[in-house]
Prior knowledge:
The complex is a heterodimer.
Chain A lengths: L8 H39 L14 H19 L1 H25 L13 H16 L1 H16 L3 H31 L1 H16 L2 H12 L3 H25 L3 H9 L4 H12 L1 H17 L1 H5 L7 H9 L3 H34 L4 H24 L12 H44 L3 H16 L1 H17 L2 H31 L1 H16 L3 H11 L3 H26 L2 H9 L4 H12 L1 H17 L1 H5 L5 H11 L4 H30 L5
Chain B lengths: L1 H24 L20 E5 L3 H16 L5 E5 L2 H10 L4 E5 L3 H10 L3 E17 L1 H6 L25 E5 L8 H7 L4 E5 L3 H14 L4 E6 L3 H4 L3 E3 L22 E8 H6 L2 H8 L4 H12 L5 H11 L1 H7 L4
Parallel strand pairs in B: 1-2, 5-6, 5-7
Antiparallel strand pairs in B: 3-9, 4-7, 4-8, 4-9
Helix pairs in contact in B: 2-11, 2-12, 11-12
Amino acid sequence: MSTSTTARPGAAANRxxxxxxxxxxxxxxxxxxxxxxxxxxxxxxxxxGRDTLFLATGESNAFHRWLFEARERFDLMAQTNFFFExxxxxxxxxxxxxxxxxxxxxxxxAFPRPVPEVGWLGVIALAAWVVYALAxxxxxxxxxxxxxxxxxxxxxxxxxxxLIVTLVAVALCVLxxxxxxxxxxxxxRLTTIFTPVLDAMQTTPPLAYLAPLALVxxxxxxxxxxxTLIFALPPLVRIAAHGLRTVSPTSVEAANSMGSTKWQTLxxxxxxxxxxxxxxxxxxxxxxxxxMVTIAALISGPGLGQPVIQALSxxxxxxxxxxxxxxxxxxxxxxxxxxxxxxxxxxAARARRNVRRRRLVLAGSAVAVVVAVVLSxxxxxxxxxxxxxxxxxxxxxxxxxxQAGFVDAVGGVTLAIKNFISxxxxxxxxxxxxxxxxxxxxxxxxxxxxxxGGVRALLPTVVCIAIILGTGLWHDTMLTLAMxxxxxxxxxxxxxxxxxxxGRSRRVDTAIRPILDALQTIPPFVYLVxxxxxxxxxxxxxxxxxxxxxxxxxxxxxxxGIRGVSATTVEAAESSGSTxxxxxxxxxxxxxxxxxxxAANQGLLLVLSMVVIGGMVGGGSLxxxxxxxxxxxxxxxxxxxxxxxxxxxxxxxxRITKHTAARFGRVDTG
Amino acid sequence: xxRMNRRAGRMAGLAAVACLVLAGxxxxxxxxxxxxxxxxxxxxxxxxxxxxxxxxxxxxxxxxYVARTELGCEVEYKPLKEELAWQGxxxxxxxxxxxxxxxxxxxxKYIQDQKTGMVVGPTGNTGIIGWYVPPWLAKAHPEVLxxxxxxxxxxxxATSESGGQGQLLDGDPSFVTNDEALVKNLxxxxxxxxxxxxxxLIQAFRQAEANKDWMIGYFYEPQWLFEELxxxxxxxxxxxxGCDANAEQVDCEYPTYNLDKIASREYIEAGSPGAKLVxxxxxxxxxxxxxxxxxxxxxxxxxxxxxxxVKANMDKVQKWLPAE
Lengths: 670, 324
């Protein structure tokens, strides 16, 4: 607290006056928020059920029919149009060739051979060698173990296919994303143009555009790569642009003054200095690409998504879990390898001592790799992955038994929780949001946005509300908003509890982090069935799925924030005799406020990205409309409209929380 | 570092060349897959869509297995939802949809307008759509099996999702439903709640049976679940021709579907043995349930399930094979 005596009373008085003014405006705004809430409550009590813009599930409006007809026209055009035939057709054929060749070389039988060109021994040797060259011995060992594990779990070919599709998509992301990032780092105009596009790419549910995409690019690998590309590109562009922008201007100026051209400066100064950040972006992009594996399987994309989807059709939780586990360990492997590669490259650049020895090892091991590849072409034992021991079958049985036992043990309790939250929290909130007349409700949202986020939040909010109204799905959007808010509250409660716990203890962190990694990478399809078993079909089950997916990110962000609180502050508080609760509530959390706000923002967006998955377990509203639009041709228009509403809702919530955080939390809005 | 990388790169190049050379010369013990007897006959690859339900999978893999082993066709399975599968007729990525439930909209778009697909006759299976309750409920309260009594029990069927009314659980968005109109036109005190996927719907029925919960939901036959859980159908007002003509005024049960086979026009017109097999294929609900049961209950792979059934039913299979 600023009770320090100052030599200049005038300055102190000024400061006090300024802080008083801030305090006053803060109080004023708070009063404004309370006022808006009261108006809302009264309006709801009086006008409940009027002008709700309710649209029954089976009904559609002119806009939905227009979208449907646009799709029909597009379909017709895509089949006869020159551009689609040659340009897109060429891209599609090229992608198909790359993936198919890769698959026949490393994964699937290359007809008429009963096995791929290179058998499992050769593939593992090649992969380990490449990773050894890029990231060192430990990572080479990790790759070997991971690939062997996937093989013995029974998904050798699917795992390698997944890796091939992921690598092709990530390579394309780099080819397209890096130039975009460079352009964005140099031009504010381009940044303002690209940002909403990137937002839409990340938040539009892929189910909305999967069918037209498959028509244009072709069912299978090409469309799978494209859908992955759309979803995975934004993190790389954003993070790399941020990295390039923050390269110290002095270095750039120094290079310029030495007469470097723009291209030279970029190559020799900016790119190397932003390298670490770019790799972080690459890492995020890789993770995002991997998370599209199951979605890609819906358009017959090769890889581990197919066994997951297939197992789900017989509700075979065991088999789905095992295939999901393969995805998880591949994700963890790729995460660790890309991270290690960035550090390894730097370390190698600095230490030149062992270069000679390394070269020798690389050359020697290259010979071993060649031998392994040749052997794997010649002998079936090292070409076709052994089917026994089949760890996958054993593990699948365990998973199924464990699931059933868990459901039996806690089933009653979970249903009680579901009923409590549904009746006490969800139903009232849903009624307040959905049954208030649309004009009052949108006024309330706009007013709250202006009071909390200021003018900069006001404009996007107005635009997004207009878009939502334009889709004709206002009522459904409000129901989705209610679910999103409840889920975010649960995410934040979990984030605060577990995040603080982890942030205060390294041991706890080490124990919990792998679980969080697994929850973030396991395809949600895997836990849909147990979730329904525990909570029955309904909105709460959708909330549970969203929380399972979003909470890990919030927990990690808060834990990092707590750990980032300076050690001296903590020691000072300790020495003044704070209890543990005081320490958390009065010192650590307030100091980590920025992280808490960031966690809320990310939690909200991740929850929203699960709306569609929620629609598959009874979440209803927008998520269900998207699912239906994907399944039924006639409902395509309404499904697309629902996707647009989801994007608008996401952008609106993002801008409101970001600008609110900027004003109250004093955090970097990125 | 750069120099080292270049060196490594060269090394890799050398290794790759060596691989190819060695591999080219080497004649190991891996032989090419045996071409089945009739390989020369079947020059057309069969691209079989796999729509996401087990009964479909059973039919598809039985046909695929016969095409591969008896006719020597190369068969490729493509897991796809209905609409995407039909879309593939035009590009040649999909040749056959072996089990189709109605889908007048798709027939209009791809058969009438685009002319890329065609109907190649019935599968012999009949599809029933309706409202079902778990077996325990049908036994304990047989009254619920008639729609006229449903309102008496609407409170028993209520859940946190149904807003004070009874809950009618609808499921897989792939199936057309008239349920909202039915509830309205039959004056039922029920609300349609959408489970959103087949797995969610099936799991809900399982839980309801296990916990003796009240539940009524939209379901269909043939479906493998009936082997495990014989759901009982609720009687709705009988179907009369035209009673479902206007979607908003439907007040009768769903019609019985004669499931049919849809194929790419190009594929059928090329007339390969595979195409003939698809045209001839026909079996019963009981046949399909056996194979679906192998897959869903016994956990067999679809391929193994098809093999088991085909080997035990060669007499039926013989009738599907094209005449020499």
